[in-house]
Write a structure and sequence with these properties.
about 20% strand; globular; single chain; alpha/beta; six-stranded mixed sheet; seven-stranded mixed sheet; about 260 residues
Length: about 260
Amino acid sequence: MMPATMPLWDEITDRVVAPGTLSLWWLYQAGLVIKSPGGTVIAIDPYLSDAVLRSYKQPRNVPALVDPATAAVDALLATHSHEDHLDPDSIDGFMSHEGTHFIGPPMAVDKVLSKGVAAARATAVRRGTVVEVGDITVRAVHARHMFAPEPTPDAVGYLVEHDRVRIYHSGDTEYDSEIVADTIRTSVSLICINGTAGNMNAHEAAMLAWRQQTRLAVPFHYGLWRDEGYGEGANLDPHVFVSTYHRLDPGGRTFVLTAGEAVVI
């Protein structure tokens, strides 16, 4: 059960974002909330229920930090249609807010429309698609996520841009040089590190961040389930990513997220 009131959402609502910056909050796994100076709020891949307990017998190991029924975002984004990125039990809550628009690849859009959401409130994206959300620009970039039981050939990552700030969100993906071509010189790169279920591992993620020439390299896609839930051989220690990245770029900057804490980019 989600709590009736969520102090984190109050913080997000009240936060004033300085010009030339974006603020973000990590919600575990690949879930993010991003807020702009103009007050635009988007959520990317927020998994807030226990839906994967039904499909893959994986119970969440941490409480949800946001209640979608109280989270009035300008846009809900999914990188692909897998349940820990497009949470089927959160769609109704998010889309109950009339001002919320959905953005995602076609397979994800189909799942949202199947919930009864009007087609005019959803935008299908592919690599290269650009969507304006308030004072934020969202650009879909390359991803490769052909996880064998449930391949998602239309999976994307996102660049979220405001002014000169560029945040890369990898979603789920294997290492691919085409990602570098789409995301060179980001302000911050948030990259999956678990190394199982069709994702790059911590070392590959560090290589990607290094090749992107990012100003700040950040690992994510862990912390949601018990460690064994990620599969044998999973990389779930963000400091492995940090160590490898600093071997590639001794002067580079890294950051390890704390769920629910605001980060200013």
